[in-house]
Amino acid sequence: MKRSNSEKLYEKALEYFPGGVNSPVRAFKAVEGAPLFIKKGKGPYIWDEDENQFIDFCCSFGPHILGHNYPDVHQNIVDTLENGTSFGAPTKLESDLAEIIISRNPYVDKIRFVSSGTEAVMSGIRLARGYTGKNKIIKFEGCYHGHFDSLLVNAGSGLATFGESSSAGVPQKVVEDTIVIPLNDEEALEAAFEKHADDLACVIIEPIPANNGLLLQEKSFLLKLREMCTEHGVLLFFDEVISGFRVAFSGAAEYYDIAPDIVSYGKIIGGGLPVGAYGAKKHIMQSVSPDGPVYQAGTLSGNPVAMAAGIAQLTVCSQPGFYEDQEARTKTFVESVNAHAKEKGYDFSLVTVGSIFWMAFSDQTTIRSAAQINADMTPFKKLHKALLERSVYVGPSGYEVGFVSHVHTKEVLENAAQQFKNALDAVFS
Ligand code: PMP
């Protein structure tokens, strides 16, 4: 596979950006070679600067549920652009997108658009604290909620440990109010509530944890979480930046039929442009400025071009049968690859939910907590290379999940499954 143009561009980018990139995982630090510089995308495919074509399962880490450059999304962006890009004043498009979301979503009466997932979660946490008048938050080991200070905490395992930041530049004081516990562990949850419930503003969770492998939770654990939050007057915050509009229109909340108190969205909601949102029932959202005392603002919030992209994308997603079809195609693909891995006795399986999959180097198809992940990423590194050589692009980290889009047709996925099988044979032979 020719990579010389990407290599040259990477050398140049290294002069300008830390690690040559504007977001760390893009740097190919965990896999071989220079990052591929992508020139264009269409449907399920991307092309790099060396003219290599790939079936794309990264899908910009989630936003492209309709694939790249979907005609309706493209057209709505272009049409809106004709009228300008940003006004610092309300537009009709913001309400149009909000209506598409809220009219189908029983958990949210009001939302606020922001420009990224990080911003959505950060603002939602401030709202939880402002609304409850409490300070502490519980998060789960292995869940990622964006790069703002108080949630950049992984911390060790054990019951109700106080957080320790996983980034330099975050004062210890800032993370002292973040309590980190393992996923899917009812005992740890009970212990943390017992100790901290009096000053607990919210519990934040990716209801489908998909940033550290795909750590599917038992529904009984999520129900327990809901129950304990209700009992203690603590808000349950579902971070649906990945799962929102991905596993069902109203996200994991709809998928599991569990109502959160606050929810954050990102990625799919913006059709590939920078958008995030947080929302809740009216009595909670009333705390947000200018109605209430919780301040939050943004020059480009609700940007018209981004709203247009979101409107076009979510209109397609809201069609009957959309998510059933997504899940069915993904399941066929995953089962085909898994049958091959099983037959050959490889320590490998694709773990899946909805149209998300994760390459687990284990023969288990359910892994529920960070501690259960096989920490040896050497086989992933080999698989990543073998897939690129077979024209399949997945995110350059063994902890990232893959995404199947609406235009990853049965035929595209059959081809992809065959390439996965060949790549696995190359890795394990
Ligand atoms: N929350 C979750 C669950 C995410 O997956 C991400 C991004 N991967 C974020 C928050 C942060 O979103 P962004 O990168 O748009 O700031």
UniProtKB/TrEMBL annotation:
<comment type="pathway">
    <text>Porphyrin-containing compound metabolism; protoporphyrin-IX biosynthesis; 5-aminolevulinate from L-glutamyl-tRNA(Glu): step 2/2.</text>
</comment>
<comment type="subunit">
    <text>Homodimer.</text>
</comment>
<dbReference type="GO" id="GO:0042286">
    <property type="term" value="F:glutamate-1-semialdehyde 2,1-aminomutase activity"/>
</dbReference>
<dbReference type="InterPro" id="IPR004639">
    <property type="entry name" value="4pyrrol_synth_GluAld_NH2Trfase"/>
</dbReference>
<dbReference type="GO" id="GO:0006782">
    <property type="term" value="P:protoporphyrinogen IX biosynthetic process"/>
</dbReference>
<keyword id="KW-0963">Cytoplasm</keyword>
<dbReference type="InterPro" id="IPR015424">
    <property type="entry name" value="PyrdxlP-dep_Trfase"/>
</dbReference>
<dbReference type="GO" id="GO:0030170">
    <property type="term" value="F:pyridoxal phosphate binding"/>
</dbReference>
<protein>
    <recommendedName>
        <fullName>Glutamate-1-semialdehyde 2,1-aminomutase</fullName>
        <ecNumber>5.4.3.8</ecNumber>
    </recommendedName>
</protein>
<dbReference type="InterPro" id="IPR005814">
    <property type="entry name" value="Aminotrans_3"/>
</dbReference>
<dbReference type="InterPro" id="IPR015422">
    <property type="entry name" value="PyrdxlP-dep_Trfase_small"/>
</dbReference>
<dbReference type="InterPro" id="IPR049704">
    <property type="entry name" value="Aminotrans_3_PPA_site"/>
</dbReference>
<keyword id="KW-0413">Isomerase</keyword>
<dbReference type="GO" id="GO:0005737">
    <property type="term" value="C:cytoplasm"/>
</dbReference>
<keyword id="KW-0627">Porphyrin biosynthesis</keyword>
<dbReference type="InterPro" id="IPR015421">
    <property type="entry name" value="PyrdxlP-dep_Trfase_major"/>
</dbReference>
<comment type="similarity">
    <text>Belongs to the class-III pyridoxal-phosphate-dependent aminotransferase family. HemL subfamily.</text>
</comment>
<keyword id="KW-0663">Pyridoxal phosphate</keyword>
<dbReference type="Pfam" id="PF00202">
    <property type="entry name" value="Aminotran_3"/>
</dbReference>
<feature type="modified residue" description="N6-(pyridoxal phosphate)lysine">
    <location>
        <position position="267"/>
    </location>
</feature>
<dbReference type="GO" id="GO:0008483">
    <property type="term" value="F:transaminase activity"/>
</dbReference>
